[in-house]
Design a protein that fits this description.
alpha+beta; four-stranded antiparallel sheet
Length: 159
């Protein structure tokens, strides 16, 4: 009986570690797709509205106008900083350029999306937020609290 329990525990550990590897692989592929879509906007192959509709989460009370405003600010920051973006990695968050404490309840997890912002003359490493909501990654969420429209994560680029 004891041998059976040990075998069962070992099997469960292997099963859970396999599930975690699948989870990490999925986050990597979602982040890679986000960067690809961002590059499509930078190259003009895709409209900014598409990126905003895919990667700005509308929380309670927020409108498409709110998403377009804050998503536009995010894209303005990227387009001023880079002509292309290279995906490097995605990991648990410790982002310092964005205020990530106290996420809204619908944000399951915040990841660091490490990228290289490329211009014709330089490569600048950067860390962007990636919010896991449901089974999808977003760059930000917009919502209404009381009478105020808010954005998460907070950053100077949204001022």
């Amino acid at each position: 009986m004891r041998t059976f329990i040990l075998i069962l525990v070992a099997f469960l550990i292997l099963l859970l570690s396999g599930c975690l590897a699948f989870y990490e692989k999925t986050i990597d592929s979602l982040a890679g797709q986000m960067v690809k879509d961002l590059n499509d906007v930078l190259s003009g192959e895709q409209q900014a509205n598409y990126f905003i509709s895919e990667y700005v989460y509308l929380g309670s009370g927020a409108t498409n106008n709110d998403a377009n405003y804050f998503g536009g600010k995010f894209l303005d920051f990227i387009t001023v900083s880079a002509s292309s973006v290279e995906f490097v990695s995605v990991a648990d968050s410790a982002v310092k350029s964005f205020e990530i404490s106290n996420p809204p309840s619908w944000v399951a997890k915040v990841f660091d999306l490490t990228v290289h912002l490329r211009t014709p003359t330089q490569i600048v490493p950067a860390v962007l937020p990636a919010l896991l909501i449901g089974n999808k990654l977003y760059v930000l969420t917009v919502y209404v609290e009381g009478t105020q429209t808010k954005v998460y994560p907070k950053s100077a680029i949204f001022q």
